[in-house]
Amino acid sequence: MSEVKARKSDAEGEVSWQSKKSAMTRDRILEAAIDCFINLGYANVTTAKVADAAGVSRGAMLHHFPSKTELIQAAVEYLHRKLLDDYTQRVAKIPKKLKGKERRRAGLDAYWEHLTGDLFVVYHELCVAGRTDEELNSILERATARFEEHVHESNHELFEEWNERGDLYFLAMDLTKFMMEGMAVGQWGKNKNKRINRLLDYLGDRLEEIFSDDGPTAISQHSSKMKAKN
Question: Which Gene3D superfamilies match (predicted)?
Answer without folding.
Answer: Tetracycline Repressor, domain 2 (1.10.357.10)
